Amino acid sequence: MHKYEKIWLSFGTVSLAVFLLILLVSALHGGHSPAASGIETIHPEHVLDDERFANPGLYESDDPDYDYDLYFVASAFRYDPAEVEIPVGSRVKVSVATTDVIHGFQITGTNVNFMVEPSLVSNYTYTFNHPGEYLVLCNEYCGIGHTDMTSIVKVVE
Ligand code: CUA
Hints:
By secondary structure, this protein is α+β, with helices and mostly antiparallel strands. Helix content is 20%, strand content 39%. Strands 1, 2, 3, 4, 6 and 9 form a six-stranded mixed β-sheet that branches. A five-stranded mixed β-sheet has the order 5-11-10-7-8, with no helix packed on it. Dinuclear copper ion binds at residues 103, 138, 140-142, 146, 149. It is found in: Cell envelope.
């Protein structure tokens, strides 16, 4: 009996050590919990001073996890760029910042659908596997021109 107690005790100690190690590793990586990932702040008045949003559009990525960065600027009542082409099969990190109020960024026919809040860069990574034209729209009421707030994503062969 004594022997089994010892085994259980060491099992417990090892489990605790592993658990603490996992906590430590995720803390060092900036946290991979869904709530903490990808949070980046940006002042709404300085969005256009940022080189990514000064020239929004599609850029090849150095990150091995995805092929392209795609930047959009949201403002009442438009998206910039108004149209963008993506090669089919590309994994794309879509990042959006607003220069004014809250907008709801959605690429219809895909899983890309998130709020764009002032002072935050919001992003979602998605693989565009099907060629076609996808309407980008705003799904958060943002003022008189809300329904005009669109763009087109063309997924091309
Ligand atoms: Cu932007 Cu509704």
